[in-house]
Design a protein that fits this description.
Elements: H1 5-18, H2 31-40, H3 46-59, H4 63-67, H5 71-78, H6 84-102, H7 110-114, H8 121-132, H9 141-149, H10 158-168, H11 174-187, E1 251-253, H12 256-264, E2 271-274, H13 284-287, H14 299-304, E3 309-313, H15 319-328, E4 332-335, H16 340-354, H17 357-371, E5 380-386, E6 390-392, H18 398-406, E7 409-410, E8 418-419, H19 421-427, E9 431-435, H20 443-452, E10 457-461, H21 463-467, H22 473-485
Parallel strand pairs: 1-2, 1-3, 3-4, 5-7, 5-9, 9-10
Antiparallel strand pairs: 5-6, 6-8
Bound molecules: iron/sulfur cluster.
Iron/sulfur cluster (SF4) binds near residues 189 and 194.
């Protein structure tokens, strides 16, 4: 599609009609609240931020009160937005910088804003546009995807897409367009299942009409005649784009235990990237480049490493990581490990994909032997994974299923709940398991729990054996059985 001025105007009018309510999705009353909310929104949904900020602003209504906040108290208030320690640090730095450099006020200057702790150029543009009405068109993951699908830009970085959009549209429309594109990406032009059949821009979109390949999935998406055809995106747990059919792949693993598994299977040479938490075996740290954390990978580094497959796990890595990889056109596969049995399926899937089927089958056979016969239901067992606040591994998580297979009976709320002191007391477990990671539970914590639950048995257990599925499943099972026998 060649975009004439008339067509660009047509697109704008359609977006105005389709999204009359398009506006900044972060609740705020002044520039201070907006800059704080924008910092919190990194790798978090806007609705989650909007739930968090009323309590935060009631406690810290301005930069001077926030600058004096106790880190622990601040962290507790923003915990649900994720990466809370880092964000708390940034907010404290931000508040202090506002006090010392700007008399407690948020500056309306792009350079000064971007220089504040936790505020990059994109955040600065969002604040400038929404708090001060300064035209800006910050490109987030939605705008990046929509602009490329519509053929408004073929650029491969958000900065270049932003430059293309700013060239195409009048400056006075940038703020409105920014919100309209985001609404369109969220409500219609979804990363995996774009609703092309109901898209207000379908007749202007060559990707939606199946004329050209979607730059994100590498496949043709939809349809002639307005009838939707099954989008050519594959289910979430498989690679979304075609992989090379033969030869070794360039793999980035964003899952520590998968990294270890690939080494166990002799596939270390195919690993071109890993997270900073992929620390086993030790030598991997010196030989395979690091690409950031499991929840906050560095996409520039990932792109530079030119991977043919990125491996994710649904609890370990956030959905936005997969979405961003999709937007960047990087093939990925996401495993979902909630049970010991799901390890077998994952071994076979990985083994088939990576040419290690024999090793995978051998692990399946070995694990089946270990699981037969399944033990009888044992003591009511709570697995704690964090303190301050207490958090547990619910019965539907991998660590609890491993405990179940070892003979314990997992208790507690589902998934990874926070437990109030009252909720913890009410569970009244027979056994408490304290894995040494992700929280470093020690004898001191065990003694504290022994005082609170004098009738319960408290065991500190190897956190990696208990939580590193796939690479240490059998080791974890044996360890927990021995623990139960003690
Ligand atoms: S037609 Fe489909 S791909 Fe094109 S903008 Fe609309 S939803 Fe997105």
């Amino acid at each position: 599609m060649r975009w004439s001025i008339a067509k660009l105007k047509d697109l704008q009018q359609r977006l105005v009609r389709a999204y009359p309510d398009a506006k900044c999705a972060l609740d705020h009353r002044d520039p201070f609240q907006l800059v704080v909310a924008t910092v919190l929104s990194a790798q978090c949904t806007d609705s989650r931020v909007n739930i968090t900020t009323p309590g935060l602003f009631a406690r810290y209504p301005d930069a001077s009160s926030l600058a004096k906040a106790k880190p622990v108290e601040l962290e507790a208030l923003i915990r649900s937005t994720g990466f809370f320690r880092n964000k708390a640090k940034n907010l404290l730095g931000l508040a202090n910088a506002l006090i010392t450099r700007h008399d407690g006020k948020v500056p309306n200057d792009s350079v000064q804003l971007a220089a504040l702790p936790g505020v990059g150029q994109k955040t600065a543009n969002v604040v400038l546009a929404n708090a001060f009405g300064v035209p800006a068109l910050a490109v987030d993951t939605h705008i990046f995807r929509v602009a490329r699908r519509l053929g408004l830009s073929a650029a491969k970085t958000p900065e270049k897409v932003e430059a293309d959009l700013c060239r195409l549209f009048p400056r006075e429309d940038w703020i409105e367009l920014h919100h309209q594109f985001i609404f369109h990406g969220r409500r219609c032009c979804d990363a995996r299942k774009p609703d092309c059949g109901n898209c207000p821009a379908l007749s202007l979109c060559d990707v939606g009409r199946g004329k050209v390949v979607d730059p994100h999935s590498g496949t043709k998406l939809a349809v002639r005649g307005g009838q939707k055809r099954e989008a050519a995106l594959k289910p979430e747990r498989t690679a979304y784009a075609p992989l090379p059919t033969s030869g070794p792949l360039r793999i980035i693993s964003l899952v520590p235990s998968v990294t270890e598994l690939l080494v166990q299977w002799g596939l270390a040479a195919q690993l071109v990237g890993r997270t900073r938490y992929c620390i086993a075996p030790k030598w991997i740290r010196a030989t395979v480049p690091e690409v950031g954390g499991t929840k906050d990978p560095n996409f520039q580094r990932i792109t530079d490493l030119n991977p043919e497959l990125v491996i994710l796990e649904k609890d370990e890595n956030s959905k936005w990581v997969a979405d961003t990889l999709t937007d960047l056109g990087i093939p990925w596969m996401a495993l979902e490990i909630r049970t010991v049995k799901s390890c077998m399926a994952a071994w076979l899937a990985l083994g088939k994909l990576l040419g290690a089927l024999d090793q995978a089958k051998a692990r399946v056979v070995g694990l089946k032997k270990l699981l037969s016969p399944m033990p009888k239901t044992g003591p009511r067992t709570l697995t704690l994974i964090w303190k301050d606040p207490w958090m547990s591994a619910g019965p539907d998580t991998y660590p609890s299923d491993l405990a179940r297979c070892a003979g314990f009976k997992p208790i507690g709320p589902e998934r990874w709940p926070q437990l109030s002191e009252e909720a913890l007391a009410a569970l009244n477990p027979d056994v408490i398991l304290l894995p040494t990671e992700p929280f470093r539970f020690s004898k001191r914590h065990a003694a504290e729990l022994e005082r609170r639950f004098p009738l319960a048995k408290i065991h500190i257990v190897d956190g990696q054996a208990m939580t590193w599925y796939l690479s240490r499943t059998e080791e974890g099972l044996v360890m927990l059985r021995e623990t139960l026998g003690r």
